[in-house]
Structures are given as structure tokens and as C-alpha cells.
Specification:
globular; 5-stranded mixed beta sheet; about 160 residues
Length: about 160
């Protein structure tokens, strides 16, 4: 591992659900999804503990939690549940947690899997991990855009 790679900690995206929670972890370059899985657990404390263990195993430095706001931008019970889970994650993992607008990610994940010929039963096993990967992909795109903007601004300030 070179010095540049050692500087970046990975980012984990989470698609939190009542029984199944999708997880996607970036690679060290913060470019691709390097690992994904689904946690099956019903108690938020159990899910948070499993996330803590995975975050430590994969050298994660930041968590991005899907925030299911309504299509009109208002917050409903699911969004409030995610906000409560974010607080639990901060307490359990001691990592920063960013809430990420996840509108349509589960629908898009089902469409991707259906487009790849997966039947409904097969989709159910992986849809949460795919949704987490979509959350991660969106967040990494914004992350890279901000990084490039910061570099550009720094270069402009030099000259």
C-alpha cells in the first residue's frame, strides 16, 4: 500500500431496513464499491453492532445512511426511524454518519436486478445490498466532485 492509499479510509453506505440492512463499502480509492453484504437482524442495536464490526474489519472512516424522505421532500416515520438509527450508529461506532437522500434507490435496485434476469425470490436476497451500493455510488460521486472543486479553488488561490 502506498502513502496515498493509506491516507484514505473507506466509506460504508447503509440501506437500513426492518429485517434486512444492505451494506456497501468503498475501495480505498473511494471510486468503487469494494464489498457488499446484507445484515439480517431485527433489533437496531444488533444491526448497529454488526455494522461496528464490519466498519472495523474494512477500515471504514465514515458511514452514509440512507434517509428515506418522501418524494415531496417531507419527513415521514421511515425518515425519523433512520434519524434515530443514525444517532445509535454514532454512539456504537464512534464514526461520523451522513444522512443521504435515498429516494428511489430500492426501486432502482429492483429494476437493476430484474433487468439482469433475477426472479423476485432471488432479488429479495440482494436488493438491499444493491440499494446500499446505489447510495454509496451517489455519495462517492458528490465526494469526488467536492474534492476536485477544492483542488481547483486551492490552485486558483495560489496564482
Amino acid at each position: 500500500m502506498n502513502k496515498k492509499e493509506a491516507f484514505f479510509l473507506k466509506i460504508m453506505a447503509i440501506d437500513y431496513g426492518d429485517a434486512h440492512t444492505g451494506i456497501a463499502v468503498s475501495d480505498r480509492t473511494l471510486t468503487l464499491v469494494g464489498y457488499s453484504t446484507v445484515i439480517t437482524a431485527y433489533r437496531p442495536e444488533d444491526v448497529a453492532e454488526k455494522i461496528r464490526v464490519l466498519a472495523a474489519e474494512h477500515a471504514v472512516g465514515e458511514l452514509v445512511l440512507g434517509h428515506p424522505v418522501n418524494m415531496d421532500g417531507t419527513r415521514g416515520p421511515r425518515a425519523e426511524k433512520a434519524e434515530g438509527f443514525a444517532a445509535l450508529l454514532r454512539e456504537t461506532t464512534l464514526l461520523p454518519v451522513t444522512l443521504w437522500d435515498e429516494r428511489r434507490t430500492t426501486v432502482d435496485a429492483h429494476n437493476i436486478l430484474a433487468g439482469n434476469g433475477k426472479r423476485a425470490r432471488e432479488r429479495k436476497k440482494t436488493v438491499d445490498a444493491v440499494a446500499a451500493a446505489l447510495i454509496l455510488e451517489g455519495y462517492l460521486t458528490l465526494y469526488r466532485r467536492r474534492l476536485e472543486q477544492s483542488k481547483t479553488e486551492a490552485e486558483e488561490n495560489k496564482g
